[in-house]
UniProtKB/TrEMBL annotation:
Gene3D superfamilies: 2-enoyl-CoA Hydratase, Chain A, domain 1, Lyase 2-enoyl-coa Hydratase, Chain A, domain 2. Transmembrane segments: none annotated. The lineage of its organism: Bacteria, Bacillati, Bacillota, Clostridia, Eubacteriales. The keyword Mitochondrion does not apply. It is an enzyme of class 4 (lyase). GO terms for biological process: fatty acid beta-oxidation. It comes from Desulfosporosinus lacus DSM 15449. Pfam families: ECH_1. The keyword Lyase applies. It catalyses: a short-chain (3S)-3-hydroxyacyl-CoA = a short-chain (2E)-enoyl-CoA + H2O. This is short-chain-enoyl-CoA hydratase. Pathway: Lipid metabolism; butanoate metabolism. Its EC number is 4.2.1.150. InterPro entries: ClpP/crotonase-like_dom_sf, Enoyl-CoA_hydra/iso, Enoyl-CoA_hydra_C.
Amino acid sequence: MSYGKHLAFNRDGKIGIITLDNAKGFNLVGSDFLYELEEIQKEILNDHNLAGIIINANGENFSAGIDLKFLQSVSSQFIMDNLVWLQNLYSFWQELPIPVIAAINGLCYGSATELILGCDIRIAAENAKFSLPEVRFGLSPDMGGTTRLTHLVGIGQAKRLIMGCEEIDAEEALRIGLVEILVKKEALNERAMKLAHKMADFPPAGIRFAKKGINLANESSVQTGLLFEQSQSTFCCGTEDLREAVTAFLEKRKPVFTGR
């Protein structure tokens, strides 16, 4: 299956831009949306020139979440057969060795919130609103919501948002740590693009190991994290890019990295 009905994928230099592109349908998440997302992910894996990903949306809203018609059609058997695949679609962003930035405007509900939870950095416009209303419909978030939200904002806030089905605005999302950056609506995509290009210009190994190290630290012991730091530092200190970065800084010129 190709993409283009629900999602668009474009490039700006070394940055890939995934755009939720069904504004009239509130960018609802359904089966076609998810299959299109998988096709884009395959394209990303095959493009070794990409150094960053931005996920944004056309229209007034990021996404109103799961399409209830899709939810109405699923069964326990469907979930048993497909949930691992569905979870992997949102876990994909953490497996990528490059930064993934979500740029959120308007409504970001349910499955859409789970989507951005899998990203590395979340930038919200002032009009953004967040909610995980799954409990209201008789289930709990199942694509990383209970897991990643708890890691990000803590157990108490996660219970308030998920069990209470509370909607929060962008300012509160920033305060509790659900998003990292808050901007005016008109500056949203520019801020995301600026940050993505900045990180894309850093040595690839530095970005790759920084992301892996932070993710590992979030999920394991201090000793495990320190051991990873020892390993990555041993590798990085033998790269051409490290020597080029230091030399360029001392010579006051722009570095040229080769990924070696």
